[in-house]
Amino acid sequence: MIREFHHIDLRDRNSFGVAQRAERLVEFETPADLRELFADGIPERWTVLSGGNNILFTRDYDGMLLTPVARGIGIVSDDGERVRVRAEAGVEWDDLVEWSVERGLWGIENLSLIPGKAGAAPVQNIGAYGCEAGDSIERVEMYCVETGAMLTLDAAHCGFGYRESVFKHSLKGRVVITAVELLLHRTPRPKLGYGDVEREVEARGGATLRNIREAVCAIRRAKLPDPGVLGNAGSFFKNPVVGADTAARLLAEFPDMPHYPAPEGRVKLAAGWLIDRAGLKGHREGRVGVHERQALVLVNLGGATGGEVIAFARKVQEAVHARFGIAIDTEVNIL
């Protein structure tokens, strides 16, 4: 089923609460809906607006926004240990996590309470507390706009990296994700070595799926603002990944700097710590600010425009570079 809106206010469709408008917004359920939408050709400008949790509108959108609304979840196969689960693109990601935890399926519990839809998870390769969606995603179903065909892409070809995927690059503007398939497990596989997770899990009685989920939810609620109360898009900046020499230089000057091993001998730093040490945690300018409990998060204090948020973000980047000589990139999709 297709539902179409014209000149629609996007304030309630983006977690920053920015009041921009879209020329056209279409909610779709099935690949057949997409074939119908693209039957007369590909619009000059279009993109997918999923949950609106990782996007910042800086102007009105003069094209077509596509929003998936199908929310089915089902088991594809189960050999007693490995369970393949298919979720349609419109499923709320956290609903999928809860669904898995209820059924004793391990793999995505550390990704609890991340806002957004299942169809958006592979694009950004969402991650938290030592886990990424790409660790569990086995394949992605998608509609090819150019050919009208349904395609399936195995995880090995998705180009998953830190907040990276092929969907942000070579497939951007060419496909619409309609469903994801994940490989989950019945054997416990707790990952507790990141942040405060282990302490919070132990306080709840040990490493069960339910305890891990509740611990992660508690940590996130304590640190992150509710978009329904304070407009934000979660982590606005990526954690920078630097060479070993750069990390060693910084650690010599800042021995308490959080750091984590990254592929190819590189080192991942904590952007929130860098912003905090640059003196910006809780800093405000006009209608925009850095959240007082999590420096990775920029917040709309009320009525801010996307342009104001971007201008403020640039100042944060400049301050971090001036203090540490490190560039921090934005994680949010800017339109």
How would you explain this protein's 3D organization?
The protein is of the alpha+beta class and 335 residues long. It folds into 3 domains: 66 residues, Uridine Diphospho-n-acetylenolpyruvylglucosamine Reductase, domain 2, CATH 3.30.43; 149 residues, 2-Layer Sandwich (Uridine Diphospho-n-acetylenolpyruvylglucosamine Reductase, domain 3), CATH 3.30.465; 110 residues, Alpha-Beta Complex (Uridine Diphospho-n-acetylenolpyruvylglucosamine Reductase, domain 1), CATH 3.90.78.10. The chain has 8 helices and 20 strands. A hairpin with a 6-residue loop joins strand 18 and strand 19. Helix 4 packs across helix 5. The mean pLDDT is 93.
Quick recap:
By secondary structure, the protein is of the alpha+beta class. 24% of the residues lie in helices and 28% in strands.
